[in-house]
Design goal:
118 residues; alpha+beta; Trna Endonuclease, Chain: A, domain 1; 5-stranded mixed β-sheet; globular
C-alpha cells in the first residue's frame, strides 16, 4: 500500500475514534454511491453528520480543509442525498470536515462542524 493510502487509512481510523470520543455514533465508513464516497456517516445527537476526513503530513502548502472545494462539495451532497434516500433517514443533516495533520499517533486535529451547507 502506498504511503499516502496508509496515511489516509490511519487518519480515518483515528477520526472514527476521535468522533466517538466526542459523542458521535458511527453508522458507516467509506459508504459508496457509484464513484462518490462518504468517509464517515455518524449521528451527533439528533443530527446526521457526513464527515469528510482530510489527512496530511503537513499543511505548509495547503490547509487540508481547502481540499474540500466546490467540486468535492457537490460530490458529497450527491452521495449524502443517495444515502438519505437509501436508508430513509429522517434527521436534519450536517456536513463536517475533520482535518488531521501529522503522522499516525501525533495528529493535530481540527473538527469543523457545519463546514458547508447543501
Amino acid at each position: 500500500m502506498a504511503l499516502h493510502n496508509r496515511l489516509g487509512a490511519a487518519g480515518e481510523a483515528f477520526a472514527c475514534r476521535y468522533l466517538e470520543e466526542n459523542g458521535y455514533r458511527i453508522l458507516h465508513r467509506n459508504w459508496r454511491f457509484g464513484h462518490k464516497e462518504l468517509d464517515i456517516v455518524a449521528l451527533d445527537g439528533d443530527r446526521l453528520a457526513f464527515v469528510e476526513v482530510k489527512t496530511r503530513t503537513d499543511d505548509r502548502n495547503q490547509n487540508p480543509r481547502d481540499a474540500v472545494d466546490d467540486v468535492k462539495i457537490a460530490f458529497l451532497v450527491d452521495a449524502a442525498e443517495a444515502y438519505i434516500a437509501r436508508f430513509d433517514r429522517p434527521e436534519e443533516v450536517r456536513f463536517d470536515i475533520l482535518t488531521l495533520v501529522g503522522a499516525e499517533g501525533s495528529f493535530a486535529v481540527e473538527l469543523i462542524r457545519e463546514a458547508f451547507h447543501a
